[in-house]
Amino acid sequence: MIRVPLGNRQFNVMAARLTLLQATWNYERQQGLGWAWSIEPALERIYPDPAVRRERLAQHTAYFNTQPTLASVALGAVARLEEQAAQDGAADPALIPRMKSLLGSSLAALGDRLFWFTLRPFAACLGIALVLLGHTWGAVALWLAYNVVHLTVRWLGVRWGYADGPAVASGPLRSRLEALIGTFGRAGALLVGVIMACLMVPAGEPRSATFQLLLAGGLALGLACSQRARPSPTEWALGIGAVALMLGWWR
Amino acid sequence: MIQGAVVTVLLGGIAALDATPVAQTLLSQPLVMATLLGLVWGQWVVALKVGVVLQVFAAGTLPVGARTPEDYASGGVVGVGVAALLASLSPFAVAQDACVMLGSVIGMIAAGLGVPLVKWQRRRHEALSRWCETALRQGDASALGRAHGAAVVLAFGVGVLYCAAFLAVSAQLLPPLVAHRSLKLARAWEVAQPVWLGLGLAHLLNAFVQRRFMRAALFGLGLVVGWVLLVVGR
Question: Could you write out the DSSP letters of every residue in B134-163?
Fold first, then answer.
């Protein structure tokens, strides 16, 4: 049934299509449609029969959700399973949705911690610190710091997933990404300290006592309420903005 | 001014695309958009002041699971765009802090009001998803591509219109406020800026430290070393 194994061309097209993984995100199937769009080049290669291919593609539009960058790894692993199922029956097609779901949740747990909880705040802190130090290109540093990891994983992840199959989520890749989480976490904590210093003594001149007290007050308030989901930081900020406007008006 | 407004609105569409539907490269982050808009409007200081405040909050706003977080992609463009627009209309440098204050507040409001708009798009995608699956089963191989094209166009259009609406309303209502109440607004900025930065940084610090002593010590080290280097290197 199968023509030839997947190659670089398919991996590249799948990685490129993954950029639209969340374009059609919805509450019923979440990333399902984007997933089907991304895996289509692999299915086209694996299943020459259009009727079989159509059926497989329709099945891939089912519910799926994971962290969007690490979805590349799941995509490669599932493409490998599809290939095995079509080639020699080494994988049961009925098991593919289950494997997909397991990979999705396992990679989401890892990806959320790496990309959303650590790398994105780290990149933001790097950009902010540079801007506060007087470099207008802080935004470029922010963008580069994030995308060196993000685009590398998105581009090469399909190949990593294909090479290791479903075992990729528990192999050396996990250890490497866990190490990255630790590194960015420590570097981020250090950077927040540097940002605080930049705010308190910009260009070596100490800010007024009022500014420093208000900054410390904001920090204390933030630490006290960071364990609660509601009110969100933005709701707190709007409340603070309203109070500041009132004080500014009537002072 | 017209040129600046048009570019701001187009950047609103691009930010709306980058935030979730396309690529997620952080091009939509407020600091990145602030740098671009500072260049467009020639208002670096104003743009970066608003950008830093909104960035601190955007970095701690996480799109985890099915949660719809505040839309700081549009909020960043709207906040910085409004501040830069007001600053370009005001001939006095002293009014800059008033523009920054208004831009920051409008940016946060836009980020909050953007949530129902994002949810609305996601509900529209449900119908798109059902249509696409039916078309696929009937043999229409192009359905997936067309569905994605439609979603991208919708996101860009919504982003553009949302920014345009905020910019238009702000351009009508806020210039008199800056002209006549700039001192009061500047005083509000003096109070709000440090509290906002402290609040936002606390959330980031909490995300990094996670009750680990070593990381808390690194925060202290960064603070002390940064302080000493800034004072000595003055």
Answer: HHHHTT-TTHHHHHHHHHHHHHHHHHHHHH
